[in-house]
Structure formats: structure tokens, C-alpha cells
Protein 1
Amino acid sequence: MVGMISRVESAAATRRALVDAAAELLDEGGPSAVTLREVGARAGVSRGAPYKHFADKESLLSAVAIEAWERNIAGQRALRADAALAPVDRLRAALTALIAVGRQQPHLFQQMFTIPSGDPAAVARVAQRSQDEFLAMVAAVVGERDARRYGALLLAGAHGVTAMEVSGHLSTDKWRVTAEELVTHLVELVATTAPAAEPAT
Amino acid sequence: MVGMISRVESAAATRRALVDAAAELLDEGGPSAVTLREVGARAGVSRGAPYKHFADKESLLSAVAIEAWERNIAGQRALRADAALAPVDRLRAALTALIAVGRQQPHLFQQMFTIPSGDPAAVARVAQRSQDEFLAMVAAVVGERDARRYGALLLAGAHGVTAMEVSGHLSTDKWRVTAEELVTHLVELVATTAPAAEPAT
DNA sequence: TCGTTCGGGTGACAACGTCATCTGAAACTC
DNA sequence: GAGTTTCAGATGACGTTGTCACCCGAACGA
């Protein structure tokens, strides 16, 4: 029958609700606000239920970070598919998107770059895929040969400025520059310095 | 009598021991390993003693971060006083020092850039002083006029690459570049692109 | 139809952050 | 120097949290 839910479907739905609830609590009050009891409550299950889907609290938070990385990947794919954008604009848009996450969901941003203690490979793997996507965008601007070198520069710069703003260390009074301006500046710097520019994919 | 300890001296010594113990535990096992009970034990006092010196656990961790920033400031001052170094070398050394902290004390590095929830201004203030020091070093290379713009770029880049390495997102297989190489590259990029270079202080 | 599997609920426990309260000695007042 | 105040530290206690062992019931496979 249509709409009938099997056991695996129900379990998957619960897992979804758990991750969503955890992400919500993380946004609202940081990692310490993510209690398994409250997560269970918001997901409509009991306090022990999360343990049927995640090894421990940190695995749950890792799942939240992993989904954020996957959204990041999807966003970059969409940018690459947008034919209306010049390669250098795609680059800038991708980095600006990272800044936007930091601005709108600072705790999530920090979680994405937290030292993993459980399974280090889990978050790292999906982050690597995001970087692959980004590398392709860089290659379209500076060429395949120097993509890695400049890609690391761009990504580090964007992440660095966002992290500084998130943690309150980027006083615009002092630096007289916004995160977006800095990224734009950095992209221009790379685009003009880089040896060769190739046509977009 | 020499060696006699007054009450305030004893209290200051306890505070020192508490911060040291917290820093030690942070290095060993991350923020979750810093329990007030263990901190008290290592400092030779009881579990409730820290509350005579810090409002709560987070204030204690903030104190650890603040001391790390102060060491950073002292290091930068030493670099600026070293007449044997060219201005651009001082810059690179300062950024490399930041990377070294991330490598050797990853949890401390994260703590230095954590979103503060208690007194946001406390950590931010000392971080600002570190940036003032850094700004002066940048000005010696690219001139006063563009120091802010390029300073933010350099600092963000160094912090970004360190954070990526700390969180395991900087696969050297993929990027074929170490954090130091990237910083060196960035410094050269700025030094050659910047409009004017002025003599060192 | 009969086990099996497995998501979910519940009781329980240790550890933790935090506070109210007590204590004793140093510091201050006269 | 006696009395008073101040304050670092110890301790008992409480609520909360992460975690696990155990139980239950419904969906699934044979």
C-alpha cells in the first residue's frame, strides 16, 4: 500500500529526525546545548533512542557536520553547473558561501572543523570530496598545474577569515575590511598572479 | 622573611597551578578531559577550589586561551626585536609560529579560536593586541597604508591552513603542499604584489 | 506459524558542573 | 594584642548528563 512504512523506512525517518534535532540545538546554543535527552524529545523518541543509530553523542554531532559538508558539495556542484557564471565568479561564490555558513550558523561551522575524536576518517572523507569539487573550480581559473597550490591558498584564506569572524577576532574597526572583501581581494590576487588561465569546463 | 608567602601570593600561586593543570589536561585529551575535579587534583586543591578564582569552567578555559595569546604576543615582540631578521622573515616566522602551536597543541589552538559564551571581550581583547603586534610587522613590509588589508589576508591564510591541518582536512596527498610552504608562498605573493616596501622599524 | 531481528522505552549508575555552607588562618582595626 | 573581618579552601549535596543493561513488541524471514 502506498504510504505504508516499513521498518527500515521508519528507522531512517527517526535517524533523520535525530540529526535535524541535533542540528537545530547546535545552532541555537552550541554543542553543550545538544543533549541526547532534548534531541530525543524533539525527534519524538526517548533519551536512549539515539544509541540505536549513533555510537555516542560525538558521532551524532559528526553526522550533523557531515551533512553540512554534503550541502556544501551540492552547492559547489550547482555553481559549476551554472553556465551564466564566469569561472572566477564561481570561485568567489563558493568561498562566499563558506563565509555565509559561518555567519548564519557559527556553531555548525566550528563543528565542521572540529578535531574528530571518534572516527577521524568519517568527516575527513566528505571534506575531501568537497575539496575535490573546489579544486576543479580553481583549475578552471589558474590551470590544472597550479590548481593545488592556489586552491589551498584560497580555501585556507576563506576558512581563516571566516573562523576569525566567527570567534570575534576580526574586528572590522581594526582591519577595515569585511570577510567578503578579503576573499574578493584574494581571488583577484590569485587570478592575476596565476600563470595561466584556461577556459571553464 | 624571604620566602614567606602572604595570602595573596598563595592565592596567585593556586591560580597559576589551576591554569597550568587545565592547560595540561586540554593538551592531553581536549576540552572534555578538563574536569574541574581533575584540575583541582592536579593543582593540589579540592574540586570546588577553582570557583574561588574563576566563575565557571569556561572562564578557566578562557584563561588558558588568554595565556596562549599572551605567549603569542611575547613571541612576536621577540621577533620584532631581532635585528638579524629581515622584515619579511619576521612575518614568515610569526605565521610559522602559529602553525607550530596548531601542530603541537591542537586543542589549545582550537580553544584560542572558540566562540566565547561567557565574556566575549576577554579573549577578544588580548587577541586584538596580538593583531596589533602583527600589523606592525606587516606594515614594515608592505607599508602603513596597505598593512591592514594584507595583514588580514596573511593572518587569515595562516590561521586557515593551520585549522585545516588541525582538523585533518589538509591532506598533503591531495594538496601536495605543507602548511609552511603555503604560508611562505602567501608571504611572497604579498611581498611582491604589495605596492610599496618600507624599511623595518 | 514460529523464531529472529531490531528499533524503541526504561531503570540505573557514575561522573560532572555548580552552589550553599562551614572552617581556619591571614589581614586589618583599634 | 584582642577582636573583627576577609577570603581561600574543603565538603556535602543536588540536578543534569552520557551511557549501558535489560525489557518489550512489532516487522520480517523461513
Note: The mean pLDDT of chain B is 92.
Protein 2
Amino acid sequence: MLRLSKFADYGTQVMAYMAKDGAVHSASEVAAGVGMGVSTVSKILKMLARENLVASVMGAKGGYMLARHPRDISMAEVIYAMDGPISITECSGTSACERESICSTRVNWQGINFIIQDALAKVSLAEMIAPKPQVVNVSGLRSRRASA
Amino acid sequence: MLRLSKFADYGTQVMAYMAKDGAVHSASEVAAGVGMGVSTVSKILKMLARENLVASVMGAKGGYMLARHPRDISMAEVIYAMDGPISITECSGTSACERESICSTRVNWQGINFIIQDALAKVSLAEMIAPKPQVVNVSGLRSRRASA
DNA sequence: CTAACTAGTACTAAAATAGTCCCACTTCGG
DNA sequence: CCGAAGTGGGACTATTTTAGTACTAGTTAG
């Protein structure tokens, strides 16, 4: 269903929580803050740390903090950290679909993928946590749908 | 992973196969044509028929044909027929997320959803089967970051 | 030197997907 | 009028993904 994994959603929430200040938060603190299990949040933070979206501080009194300003972190990065490459189809990046010959739709899927990646890359975490929808204006488009 | 189901992909291929001519094709014929199992193709065609993307002819010598010109069928419709509503997040349409209070990102997810829907709505089946990427130019966008 | 943390990974459970099959109904052709 | 060739619509099962948990090792403040 073209659906993001829950992790991507969780990841966003965790990032949003941390974006409130620049302080160091331990995994358990974040877990309490966003209302999820400690283990799960811990896992998510590790994933985010691996992609350098949050910086970790080890040892006692350690924890995580946002690695950059919310404005400089894109949703594409968050999603990538949680779910891997943003690609709607399996065979668009790596290609290697055995039906390559029959199916000439690959190139066009790639184009669609680019649009989506771009849309996600253009939305920053800062915009994402803004109470009002100021996001989303890639071009002049709104939900103009379906003519074509 | 923000991934489309295989069905959406299969559906596209089936549609692409049928777009070659306006003739009636039986499920087994299509199956042979695209190299998939008859049962699977049959299921896909049924799904497409339910959304009126293909018209069915019952009885012996029956089968399916494209309900409209490839130019008048959008990828959004095909994906909708196979996977249901195009929405990246669970709680964007129906909302009703118990963390509503904590999480202010909903509205912005919706905006992203719109972009994606729009991108998909703008690509017709005809464009999709075109050998060259003539699709995809919503704005002047390139593929900024993403696969990082 | 120990308590409070993160790092990394392996494992398990749950859910969504994909694929198959079956039975009822419709129509063509002999 | 009968049977073969089709679709319509589910139900069912296996497989794969996803989500969640636990465990061990390493790091640092006090």
C-alpha cells in the first residue's frame, strides 16, 4: 500500500521529541516522552545514530541529541535511516528484473521514485513539527489530482 | 520501505500488456504473455475489473480488455485498484492516532501524501509503457540526495 | 570499581503479502 | 440442450516482512 513502515513514523516522532531542545536525552527518557517501549525507542535511536541524524554520548549521563538543526534534517534522511532506500519498486534501483525485455516501465518508475524522494528531501524536520501545514509546495501543486 | 506491493507492479504489467491492443484477452493468455501464473493474473484482472480499469466479457471466448484508452488511465488508479488508498502513513486519512496530542506531524504527512498522489495521478498508462522517460517533470526537480 | 548509559546483534512473535484453489454463474458452439 | 471455456468472488495457506524483545559488550561519570 505504498506504506511507510511504522519505524519511519516512530523515527519521526522520536526526532520530533528531540527537536524540542538541543539537550541530551537518554533512550528511556525519550521512551517515556513519546509513549513507546524503551527497547523499541532504543533500537530506533541506534538506527538514527548510525545515519548520523542523532549524536550519541556514551557512558553514564549519556544519551542522544540531534546531530544537526531540525531545519537541516530532511524527512528523506529520517526515512532512509529507518527503512532504507526510498524506492517504490524493487527493480528500479538495481534493475535486474528478469522481465526486463517484456516490461518497459522501469525507467518511468524511476522517474516517479525521484519525485517522491525529492518531495521527502524537501521537507525538513523543522517543518514537520510545525503545527501548521507549511510544508509541501514542491511546485504549484496541491491535490489537483487525476486529470491525466 | 515505502514500497509498493508486488501486486501494484504486476497490475501495471498486466495493464501494459493489454494496452498493446484493444482486443479481448483471457486471463490465461495474459498470464502467458507476462510470464506469471494463471491464478495470480486472474486475481489481478479481477481486481482491476472491480475498479473498472478493465472491462470483462463473460462466458466462453470471454476475457478482459482495457476499459479506457491507456492515455486516460493513471497510475494512481492502477495502484489504488491493487493496493488501496495511496497513503504513506496510517493515520493521515482517518487520523485517530492516540498520540495526536504529542505528535503534531500529521498535517504535514498529509501534504506529503498529496504530492505523491499527484505525481502518480499525472502519469498515464500510456506514458508508463513508453520506452523513453517522458514522464515525470512535475517541477524542475532533480534527485537531490536521498540514496545517501 | 560500579552504576548508568550506548553499540550491536540475535532471536521471537505477529502481521501483512503473495499465491493457490474451489465453486457458482455466464456464454459460445455443436 | 449439453459441455467447454471463461469470469466472479471468496476462502485458505504458505511465505516473507515487520515489529518487538533480550542479551552481551563496551564506555564513562562519580
Note: Residues 1 and 88 of chain B are 10 Å apart (CA to CA).
